[in-house]
């Protein structure tokens, strides 16, 4: 990944608490959680403060000044490109690994998933959120306006996204020799995503027939064999 394109991002790009992801994490106070693409460490800090984890570690491409990366409640934080550098943690150590909107930024997310999952305990879970290129507004712009314009502010066609997925491809990505998917649903279905309220209503009114086109991103869980 080229760091230059990330340096122009707004602070909020790295500094939100992922309540949708947190809602999928089991309530186990002593569990160990690793977040890849942890940004400023806000989600990890929340997990520790709410006693949803006994140990947390974050990995992020950039060192972010005035963030929670070095907060004392975060046990370890590594600044590294996980496609090129080794994660400084034991293998089969974590109960949960979070990859929230990060795998699509990798040149080779398939190899990255294999390497990252080595740090997951047997029976542990990899939780990923990945944008849906099949989303209706994105498709409309591409099909009817011939516009595949990248957005520096974020979104489905973020200018730092290197790979694009539909639901089927996400499940394939998370199906490896050591992982198997057990959950994959649009995050708009969760009450923790208030901006999805309108789309949830449309989904109900259309009897779920167009859910794959309403989905902005998918939240998926894969379990370690």
Strand order of the largest sheet: 3-2-1-4-5-7-6
CATH homologous superfamily name?
Answer: Vaccinia Virus protein VP39
Sheet having the most strands: 7 strands, mixed
CATH class wording:
Alpha Beta
Shape: globular
Order of helices and strands: HHEHEEEHEHHEHHE
What is the number of helical segments per DSSP (H or I, 4+ residues)? 8
Q: First CA to last CA: what distance? A: 30 Å
CATH architecture: 3-Layer(aba) Sandwich
Tell me, rounded to a whole number, the average pLDDT: 94
The count of strands amounts to 7
Question: Structural class from helices and strands?
Answer: alpha/beta
Strand percentage: 15-25%
CATH topology title:
Rossmann fold
Are there runs of 5+ residues with pLDDT below 50, and where? Answer: none
Any idea what the radius of gyration is?
17 Å
Give the count of structural domains.
1
Give helix % range.
10-25%
